Amino acid sequence: MLDIISIAFCYLLAQAIFSNNGIRFNYEDDVKTLINTIIIASITFEAVMGILHMYRNMVTFENGEDYLKYILGCLITAIIVTIIEASSTLRINTMRVNALAFILVSMAIVGYRVFVRTVRRERERGKEKTDGVKRNVLIIGAGNASKQLLDNLKGSLKNLYHVVGIIDDNSNKKNALMNGVKILGNRYDIPRICKEKNVETILFSISNIENESRKKILEICQETSCRIRVLPSTKDLIKNRSIMSNLRDVQIEDLLGRDPVKLDNKNIASLIKDQVVLVTGGGGSIGSELCRQIIKHKPAKLVILDIYENNLYDIEQELKFTYPKENVEAVVASVRDEKRLEEVFEQYHPYLVFHAAAHKHVPLMEGSPLEAIKNNVFGTYNCINMADKFNVKRFVLISTDKAVNPTNIMGATKRLCEMMIQAKAKSSKTEFVAVRFGNVLGSNGSVIPLFKKQIAKGGPVCVTHKEITRFFMTIPEAVSLVLQAMSLAKGGEIFVLDMGEPVKIYDMAKKLIKLSGFEPDVDIKIEITGLRPGEKLYEEVLMDEEGLTETKHDKIHIAKPSEFTMEEIEKKLEKLNKVLDEEEKSRKESKDYEGVNKDKVKKVMMEVVPTFRAAEHQ
User: Fold this and answer.
1) Are residues 232 and 325 in the same domain?
2) Distance between CA 3 and CA 24 in Å, rounded?
3) Do 453 and 332 share a domain, yes or no?
4) Which of 74, 123, 318, 505 sees the fewest Cβ atoms within 10 Å?
């Protein structure tokens, strides 16, 4: 009804403007002409709007695209009215009247809708509950993402946030305006601006940026006491068009500054596609990520083996839900159980085996050295023998930088596993290889989840030593490089992953506290607790006697092969087996099921692994 009234009024006004004497309703012809025009225009416009489904729109949520359709409807109406005038004897208005009427009708129909939308939205905003205080926000980046952020912050969120300015490193943009907000300076101005403008929140809205540059900007942001929120990568943004919903808190991974891993997916896929792949320890942090990445390459069957059924169930259900067409088998079994392993290998005949099952917690293994030997050493030995017996194409051992000049039982067991791999590769058709890397962020054994729990409880955050350093990478990055190393293997190699620069755990704790919105040693205390059993200050990636050979992948290197034979390894395992039997027998005879002669176990371990030297503080 409002549209018809608008059309009638606008045609009346247009005719009045082009009439020398105005509209004189005592002339019958003038009245007929006006009525005919209004009727034809109204019917035409209503028909066009019906075809375009415009009357189903909720006026409050209409946008520019909808307004263009209204203008299009007005244009079509004016054209049809003009055509009728030219092709019939019906008395209607002239072409110039129709042209002016088209402009006036377009302005009226769009104008009152904009007015209604504005009034309704302002009424809704008035109903929003706020604390009456707007939070000052600084936006980093003057691109398309920032434009969308500003639309949200100055629209539906304007009662909550006040944008004080924008930061951009492009000097040509300084002092320019974006949606009415001034670009105040570059990254180095962030601390000053945050202090002067009392900024509470920094929104990092550059989605397409190199990791190193992202890291440097975020480190500058950390000099402030502001909460920092970031947009993810462009790829992640595409999945969800809502900019505000994509904002997340800064994570410690953002501060590593590591570039994404570039993989030869074609080579990896050629080995995995249509083959049976077995992952031991598949429920763990590394094992489960291996499963996630392996299944993307469409194996004939993915067999996930783990003794802990809860984690095993979780990854099985996740993969079956995400990849319903892929064949996933979950197997509850222990790598210690040779007979059970034989059943699994005989049933599935895997083409590739990724051996991630292991006890990895250094202090716990110092307290239970026999368990570390049983699981890590003899569990691996069982898997190696089964792989050899059932003609597995390639066997990949997941190793650790703690295997380099180990000072703890866990590291020593993993070094012995590497020795077994290299020795077995000399006498087997199976290609046995190991992949060695450091700590992974977010894994079950990582310090990051522990620090987060301590921060959530109000502290203190416990660091064993102020100078302790570790190599870090993300779980997906580590696993991607494991798959790449697997594709490069020929047998007998120890692949060493480029872990980047070592990171001080103390500095990481400080950053994590700041990322959580607190001030280190003010809001959350950092407590130095002393090195734990078996722990050393610095982890190494290569053994002293090892050289390093480059591969075609810049982040993967090969350690020089050690000269071990399987006969020598068997003798070493006999020594370990003997000490295991003696300790079990001693415990039963004395009925002291808690007591283990740890010194004796370590002494034998040092004989078996020449590079193992127990830490002096033990």
Assistant:
1) no
2) 25
3) yes
4) 123
Same domain, 535 and 422: yes
Same domain for 172 and 88: no
Q: Is residue 123 part of a domain?
A: yes
> 120 is in which domain, residue-wise?
2-127
Q: What's at 54, amino acid-wise?
A: M
**Pair 519, 477 in one domain:** yes
pLDDT confidence bin for 25, thresholds 50/70/90: very low
Phi, psi of 229 (to 5 degrees): -125, 140
pLDDT bucket at 617, cuts 50 / 70 / 90: very low
CB 302 within 8 A of CB 353: no
Confidence (pLDDT) at 262: 62
Is the pLDDT reported for residue 542 higher than 60? no
pTM of the model: 0.65
Is 440 part of any domain? Answer: yes
Gyration radius (Cα) of the chain, Å:
36
Give the pLDDT confidence of 298-329 residue by residue, as tens digits: 999 999 999 999 999 999 999 999 999 999 99
pLDDT band at 237 (very low <50, low <70, confident <90, very high): very low
**Does residue 29 carry a pLDDT above 70?**
no
Contacts with 554 (C-beta within 8 Å, 6 or more apart), sequence order: 498
Residue 546's nearest CA partner among 496, 507, 586 is 496
Give the closest residue to 328 by CA, choosing from 307, 305, 357: 305
Active site residues: 402
Count the Cβ atoms, other than its own, within 10 Å of residue 484. Answer: 24
Q: How many CB atoms within 10 Å of residue 123?
A: 10
Confidence of residue 53 (pLDDT cuts 50, 70, 90): confident
For the record, the structure tokens of 100 come out as 């002016």
Residues 69 and 144 in one domain: no
**Is 495 in contact with 558 (CB distance < 8 Å)?**
yes
Point out the domain boundary residue: 99, 127, 155: 127
What are the DSSP calls for 326-385, one per residue?
A: S-EEEEE--TT-HHHHHHHHHHH--SEEEE------HHHHHH-HHHHIIIIIIHHHHHHH
pLDDT for 254 equals: 64
Handedness of CA 585, 586, 588, 592 (dihedral sign): negative
